[in-house]
Amino acid sequence: MKSITIKGSERESVGKKATKAVRDAGMVPCVIYGGSEPVHFVADERAFKNLVYTPNAHTVVVELEGGKTIDCILQDIQFHPVNDKILHIDFYRLNDEKEVVMEVPVKVTGKSPGIMAGGTLRLNLRRLKVKALPKNLPDFVEADITPLEMGNRLYVTKLASDDFKIMHPDNTVVCQVKVSRAAMKAAQEAAKAEKAAKGGKKK
User: What is the pTM of this model?
Assistant: First the structure.
């Protein structure tokens, strides 16, 4: 999985007054869990643009003053209810030997016979939760729609991989090819024409 580097500074004071001062300065208070002790740091709000406002999934390298680096993933983020500014971010430290759970995007591939026949693709889930060792975290989960005829569904069981586990029930539908109005109308008209033709033959 691709990684994004966030440069920050460790903070000693984590009280409400200090946190407000951090936000007023255009910085985001953050904390990294998963180690022996939580690591509190701040970073410029603009540094999170390519991590937060993107459909892609990334691991994160937090670079702190003094050359200290921590590999982690974004775990939780809080936004202001009115202006949507980032208020706080939680990260989770990665351990090469420990599996983690994170959301990754779904990438649709292939050509569906159902769509080519006039059906429409409905993507039920744009992101999936997967569990894997850090080295096996995928950039995306590929959903091949080549086998889908009109009316068919693609379940998560068809996206299984040896590298990661999908954390959704087996009956979860990732996408489906729905019958479009145009296709339905064409089928109805064809049925009517066939019925009329059979009626004409009886006479």
Answer: 0.80
Domain with 43, as residue range(s), is: 3-94
Q: Which pLDDT score is estimated for 191?
A: 65
Using CA atoms of 39, 42, 48, 51 in order, give the dihedral in degrees to the nearest 10: 0
Alpha-carbon span 147 to 111, nearest angstrom: 8
Question: Looking at the structure, do residues 118 and 178 belong to the same domain, yes or no?
Answer: yes
132 and 107 belong to one structural domain: yes
The domain that holds 142 is classified in CATH as 2.170.120.20
- HSE-CB at 144 with a 13 A cutoff on CA atoms is 6
**CA distances from residue 117 to 100, 113, 151, 178, 179 in whole angstroms, order as listed:** 41, 6, 11, 11, 9
Q: What does the pLDDT look like over 71-127, one tens digit per residue?
A: 999 999 999 999 889 999 999 999 999 999 999 999 999 999 999 888 899 999 999
Nearest to 183 by CA among 149, 145, 153, 158: 149
Pull the structure tokens for residue 67: 């050359």
Same structural domain for residues 73 and 148? no
Are residue 118 and residue 152 in the same domain, yes or no?
Answer: yes
Residues 22-37 as b/e (b if ≥16 CB within 10 A, e otherwise) read bbeeebbbbbbebeee
